Amino acid sequence: MSARSMRDPSPFRSGLIHSALGAFTLTAALGAGAGAVHLVGNTSDASPVIRVALFDEAPTGTPQLNPRLPGYQEAIGLAQASPDSTTPSATGPEPDLGVEYTVSRSVVSPPAPTEASSKGIRINGKTVLPGQSLSQVTQTVQIADSAETIETLPPAASFLPETAPLVRNARAFSNPDGKPTVSIIVGGLGTNATRTRAAINDLPPEVTLSFAPTADNLRGWVRQARRAGHEVLIELPMEPYDYGRQRPHAQVMRTENSAEDNKARLSRMLAAAPGYIGVMNYQGAKFATNAEAVDPIMSELSAKGLAMFEDGSLSRSEFSSSAKKATLAFGKATSAIDARPGADEIMQQLMILESTARERGAALGTGTPFPVTFDILQEWLPTLEEKGIVLAPASYYAKQSLRSGQIRQASLDPQG
Prior knowledge:
TIM Barrel, alpha/beta, 36% helix
């Protein structure tokens, strides 16, 4: 009797068999279904369908178009002019949407009002007509306000005599076309000889240079900067909130000092070198918030015919209001372009300067003598002319504050 070995079926072989049977069954079912559709189906249902009607029935009255779409007003006019069209009348009170409905009062004279366009809605205090957006209305009002500002500004200020340092030491500059301007101040110079030479020799002469109160050979540096065509500022040491943690400058101005003491320190700082157009703060986060300490300094600077610049690092400051009271030429930086000394961050701040110049007519930025700052400025500054922006010395920016206490608004196409 032959022996037979009993073995269990292979799981792998069983799996392959079941998979093959399942695939065959699915293919057969799909094939049968496709054959049935082919034999008994309607061929017209398989053709491409193009819908050319927007309504089940012809609409009556004014077409309900999106008011922001181009041609809305024309469509409204055609619908009303058509003898076959009818305008549905209101059958009840208007819904309360939380906005005030009123007759429009646009700055720009609108077309003759019609029943469909004579009403608008009030959003944030502005009337928005059908076919308009809130941003369009806001932009129209801003342009009108800007034009009014230009017309009502007084002529260029004549407060300063020809002997004033802001006049005598300023770089010659004119802007007859009224183009927007950007001004750049590079500060902290004089403490590093290599970077100071780079600022003097490599940056355009329209860039204003500001020298630190701790600079060695300050007179020599100022002389070199002026020979290269740059305007010069002297930085005034002012009391920060963390006063005492670092070795303070001997002439630092403090809130606890008397006005006479601070003015004496100012005089000693100004006597360090000649040829500057004004001053800029060095630190001063605490000093700048104290109006009683700031006012005497602003009055003294005004009496000396100087300009005052704020470097953009202060979160709160009395400089602007105090300068206005003292009739002092003043400029506050729109941004410190290299507060974060990275290439992307610096470029972002320079784009902000461009935008500010277009919106306000002028912009001021301050920088530090970092190599990356110099590299980016040398690439970016030559591009301003093709953008319709002029590089101006800082004195021009400060002098604009003497015109009604504000920077003149430039008339520009919002698209640049």
